Amino acid sequence: MPVIAYQSFNANSSTTHGLASMWQQPLTRAAARRVGRAGHQALVLPSLDSEFSLPVEGPANLRPIQALGGAPTQVAFGTQIALIYQNIYRAIGSMPDLLVCGELDVSNADFAGLRQSSGLLANVTGNAKACQCFTAFAQAGVAGQIKLLAEGLGFVIYSINGLSVLFVHVPNAIATNAAKVRDFYAQLNNHLVTIGSGPIDLVIGDTNQSSSNFTQNALPQGFANAHTSAVVSPFDNWNVKQGGTNSAGSKMFDVAVYNTTTINLEAGPVYLSQSSGAVTVTDHCGLAVKVSRKVG
């Protein structure tokens, strides 16, 4: 029963994928203004910079959320990633087996420290622009069960325990066009079937669409949205309810949609805020689900 997670960061279109491409981007600043005005507070769990995926005991510390400021540093992004693991462990009972971060390229020297967490293996799928990159973090113990199936503009597909998981950052050029999005998913599904790894079992990530059912409706029949509520309550926030996962907290950009004919949704989705460490570092909520293969 793998735990699958996704976190979108906020990078620009620079061909240099360092800290400058991700630091204080406009939508991150917009998210920071919103949560600051609303007085949101983060439940900050203890974590280890040297080992993201090792459970750390201790209570959450309630802190007011601040805007990302000062000189660029990888620490703010590393803390967000480390707390994805700690929060998902508390929420689901297991660490993410596979976490994909959109708009992050840890092969860049600025993020060398993020590659040094023992127990995790990092893989980057590169594209020209910083905002088009993906970095996958896999638990070392299950890395042998994870295989890169395909990658391209707006997506990366991994097999984990025989499940085909499509991580997306759907390009803005097609995101709101239902016909183009249907074609986007159909082509990827057909490719997986052709190579013997299809159909798609799970779609998770930043869909750049405004309604929670847009992605479900763009996929073949039999897919269901894991999130069925009208509100999102980030697990790492204190008493926060909002209508979406984007910088304005109003649109369901970040979703998990699963194939009900092939897998069971065992837990989640669990949503995490843009500010797990009490500093707003991105514009989108992260999320995680636990799934299993249907038998028979």
Brief descriptors of the model:
19% helix, 296 residues, 16 strands, 29% strand, 5 helices, six-stranded mixed β-sheet, globular, alpha+beta
Explain the overall architecture.
The chain has 296 residues and is of the alpha+beta class. The protein has helices spanning 26-38, 75-92, 172-175, 178-194, 214-218, and strands spanning 3-8, 41-44, 61-64, 66-67, 98-102, 120-125, 134-139, 146-152, 155-160, 163-169, 202-206, 223-225, 254-259, 263-272, 279-280, 286-293. A hairpin with a 2-residue loop joins strand 9 (155-160) and strand 10. The chain starts with a strand and ends with a strand. 52% of the residues are buried.
How is this fold's topology laid out?
Layout: E1 3-8, H1 26-38, E2 41-44, E3 61-64, E4 66-67, H2 75-92, E5 98-102, E6 120-125, E7 134-139, E8 146-152, E9 155-160, E10 163-169, H3 172-175, H4 178-194, E11 202-206, H5 214-218, E12 223-225, E13 254-259, E14 263-272, E15 279-280, E16 286-293
Parallel strand pairs: 1-5, 4-15, 10-11
Antiparallel strand pairs: 1-16, 2-3, 5-7, 6-7, 8-9, 9-10, 11-13, 12-13, 14-16
| Largest beta-sheet details | 6 strands, mixed
Beta strand %: 25-35%
Rg to the nearest angstrom?
17 Å
Give the helix proportion (percent range). 10-25%
Number of strands: 16
Q: Uncertain regions: pLDDT < 50 for 5+ in a row? A: none
Quick check: average pLDDT?
Answer: 93
Q: Tally the helices: what do you get?
A: 5
The topology string of helices and strands comes to EHEEEHEEEEEEHHEHEEEEE
**Strand order in space, largest sheet:** 6-7-5-1-16-14
User: How far apart are the first and last residues' alpha carbons, in Å?
Assistant: 16 Å
Q: Name the overall outline.
A: globular
Helix- and strand-based class? Answer: alpha+beta
